Amino acid sequence: MGERTSQGVRRKIPAIIASIGMLLSGALLTVPFSAVPANADTQFIEQQTSSGQTRSRNNWKNEYSPEGGGNWAYTVDSAIEHRSDGGYDRIEWTDDKLVVEQYNSSFVFMNAKTISASTYTPTDATEVLWGGYFNGSNYRFVVTGQSNPNESDSVAVVRVTKYSKSWQYLGNVEYSGINTYIPFDGGSLRMTEANGELWIRTCHEMYNIKGVHHQANMTFRIRESDLAKLGQATAIQNYQQSAMGYVSHSFNQYIVAAGGKIYGADHGDANPRQITIKDITPTANDDAWRSDGQILPVMTFKGTDGDNFTGATFDGFESASNGKSLIAAGTIADQDKSFPASGSEVETGARNVWVSVVPTDGSTVTTKTLTSNAFDGNQTATDPVLVKISERRFLIMWSSYDKTDEQKQTHGNISYAFMDTAGNLTSKIYTMKGVLSDCKPIVVGNTVVWYSTGTAKNTGWTTTYHNKEAGEAIEDSKNSAPVFYTINTSTGQSSSHDSTVAYRMYFLANGGSPSKVVETKAGAKATAPTSPTRTNYTFSGWSTNEHSYVAYDFNTPVKSDTILYAYWTPQEHTIYFDANGGTTYETSRSVPYSWTTYNFPDATRPGYTFAGWYTAPTGGTKIGSTYTMGSSDVTFYAHWQANSYTVTFDANGGSTSVTSKTVTEGQPYGELPTPTRVGYTFAGWWEQAWQENHCKYHDGKKITSSTPYEIPQDSTLVADWNISTYTVSFDSVGGSSVPSQTVEYGSKVSRPKDPVRAGYAFQGWYTARSGGSKYDFGKPVTGGLTLYARWRANVYTLSFDANGGSVSPGSKSVTYGGAYGQLPTPSRKGYTFQGWYTAKNGGSKISANTVTTGNATVYAHWTANSYKVTFNANGGSVQTTSKTVTQDQPYGTLPTPARAGHYLLAAGIRRSSGGLRVTASTVFTAGAAQTLFAHWDTISFAVLFDSAGGSSVASQTVEYGSKAASPKDPVRAGYAFQGWYTARSGGSKYDFGKPVTGGLTLYARWKANVYTLSFDANGGSVSPGSKSVAYGGAYGQLPTPSRKGYTFQGWYTAKSGGSRVTAGTVMGDRDVKVYARWVSASTPVKPTTPSKPTTPVKPTTPSKPAVSTVVMFRLYNRFTGEHFYTSSLVERDSLVKVGWRSEGTGWVAPVSGKPVYRLYNPYVAGGDHHYTMSTKERDALVKAGWRAEGIGWYSGGSVRVLREYNPYARTGTHNYTTDPKEDTALVKAGWRAEGTGWYAVKAK
């Protein structure tokens, strides 16, 4: 394995580093760290540190050949994935660690991380054996294990670890013992998923058997959501009997999910000695996997079982055509020339690449060879890789080289071609320089991508191959960073890409944030990151010098790791001078951040002395002679020392005990005296108008104790007076609010509008809340007054709503604010009383203690009782005999009884004879236990009458057990009706006294009438004078009359004129008289000129008689879902009249051939017909109660009539069609295809 050289971490650059010997992320910085800024200890550089890619060698892991050092496959250690940002992830097990590396879309290495070994290490393991990795739809999975030298069933030999898509550990499941000595030994491990389940196909070296640790495959099935074990196959079993397809000496294993199935594939040299595929899909009857899955052999090998060598490899396995076929690929040497050699001597011949197309329906496997290397030649092929581009297109690649090349895999020659699902190459065979590896290629758009390590360039490495079987270690010198390869699926063009390590550009924010590390490919130009930010500074650019601005040239190619420093310009802020009520000649000043300023302005204010500049309007800190600018604007506030003045009080006609006081400028007047004056109310002190130097300063204003003094000299306040008024207040004592009134002394109070109070009647205004006297609104007011409302409580009605029940009494009287008191108890059939509530549904429960607030209605709440309902089948049978139902709730699901010859009336159940019909939605209202009785209706059948050419006779509908009525005889010209028979020919005469038990067609039987043919000699004589002729029959031999002197000319239909009749004339439907025609014997007859004889016509070759056919009509009963088929027009038309829908012609059948039997099931509602050629199926159905209705038609011809079965229907369970599209549509809808029922002459 390769050597991992670094791991991603977060690093913090120290403040001062005296030398350049710091190793950051495994890379030695080449810049002097004395250049790092002094405040760098506050800067964090966020990165995934790594000096470069993990160096490894994965290009030998797919060497599944003798040249590769063995005859078995290896576990897959490496994988590649495409990210949504266009880049790639490399996932690889190397140096006993699981490493995840990120590359950008140009395959430039970005960063790496190692997955914590604690998450995937099996319990108590001292070493970890690698199994494999799988990226599922929702989770990632890693399989690891450990050896079990003591063959202990308690050792966790296999561990499956689950991760999120972001590699967060989500849990694990372990398998202990499982007949495993060493897991994953002698083969590979592959995984797939389906229906939320993870499937694992791998191998193991098993417990000791007679001194030998044999190798075989094993399989695991796990539910992904909770890691539940759904099944495992690890024991020795016969391959044919093993549900999972046990293979001894299984050299390679595959598993795929395709077309709704799971297929396991193995290459083994014993039990069996072949490459084989098995369907292991679990069915509904299987606990873990399919017990009788289909086996699909791909390739069988010559030689001895267990020899460990087969002369072949199995290197690729994919599904195609949406699961209709599977494609396998590998290499093979000429089997005839490889054997009967044994052991490694089998593997001396040159190899060729083979591809097998395996149909999943079990039809013939097609194998093709893509190369033609001579067995004894030096040119050989190995390591084929099969890539699925789409369901119908594949890419196959392999290594081509000369076996004499000592460097073996260093050849670097890859051959590849595109292929269809039949194994045919659809392109030329391309070649490229490159190396295949165990990294399975992925398809990204129209590009196939994979990588290889262990080679420095895509032309191959230059060291000698080391034999793995000999146990030689793979030296670190053979390890390398990955080389990525791509093939364009549209053009076939291939490319290789070295994964160059980028130099690091350290962008130090130099007091700002954030600092960053950007990796740039060697020789490329660096791109400046988003500018950092620093409070109070403006970013000016990136400098190569910390202390002075030396701009970095981003057009210069990067040749080494580089440190750049952010260069900052301090921002300017403003000092605002707030005179705080005064004035100043300078209102603001701009100062750069951290600069010092001085010489601040003075301020002036009338009535105040300036005390200096401060940091707050009041309080704060006094500013000295200088100030250093901070990180934001600042305001300086002027502080003032107020002056003191004398205020004189003028009582303005009244008197006051205080005549003057001292006040301070800008401060409140403080406590002011209250003067008095008879008949007046003091209205406040007013400031006199003040002016100075003949300039009016202000007009005067009302002064309170809180009014600030604002006159810069002594002043006088004058008293203001108002006539006295009084307030009359109204206390509504819980009623609506009544506004108070202001009344001058000696005036009267206005009577207000009466207040209102819920539940009370207003009684008037009183002088006290209780007691007192009723107020007289005609009395003058002499002082402040409060009047109180007086109330009397109302009486209300409490009504009781039994809510479906009954109650007495129905109401009671209650007093507002009083308790309800005793409440009545209602009753209701089928319910238990739960109490009285304020609403029919919901509401609050009330009690005797509930307080009255007004008229109210309360509602009884009930709990419905449950009762037992018994089912009486009433002559039939029923499985469920009773159930429990709730009063006034639907009955719910009702059982369906059965009774021969009957069907359940209206598909329902009735309460009793003549009662009401009950369905699942019928509401139960009995209020007690109840018995329901099944009501039956007799099944009615159609009795059809086929008049066989006679007049039409209407069909009859007859109930089971009743008798068909003998209809009026049909008529047919020339025939006498003989009666109704059970068959068109043969059969027996039908007995109309016999009860009807099924559908029936009766056929009219006829006898032709006999009529008299009379001979009128017309003047002559004839004997006999008449003869009898049957209707439709020829007249036959006619007598020759005689007449003296006349010659007989023939018989005619009239004495004169008419038509001549002969022996071949056909008898009609009545008696006939014919007349002799004469000519006088004395009248010579002119001889006619003899006609020229015609050339005899050559008889034509008789044609082959046509096959007689009959049209089969198809009808559909929309009420039962049944399709019905008949050749009888009468039966078809009769069914259409009773509601069946004609669907035209189903097919055309021969009139003879192998019979198709028709059967009828009278025990399902509406009946059901079935058709079959199998006498066994016919007899089995008859035993089960079906009624045989004879032969429906015959099978013959080349058109398949397909048969489908609906497992969910009770009637119309089968369908028959010649249309493959209808067959496919029904199967998709859930019907089960049952193959060919019989054959028809043509479809329609």
TrEMBL record:
Gene Ontology cellular component annotations, sorted alphabetically: cell envelope
Name the keywords, alphabetized. Membrane, Transmembrane, Transmembrane helix
Chain intervals for the UniProt region annotation (Disordered): 1084-1103
Cite the InterPro entries for this sequence: DUF5648, InlB-like_B-rpt, Listeria/Bacterioides_rpt_sf
> What Pfam families does this protein's entry cite?
DUF5648, Flg_new
Q: Where is the signal peptide?
A: none
Every copy of the DUF5648 domain together lies at 1112-1241
Return the protein name.
Internalin-like protein
TM region(s), chain numbering: 12-33
Where, per UniProt, does this protein localize? Cell envelope
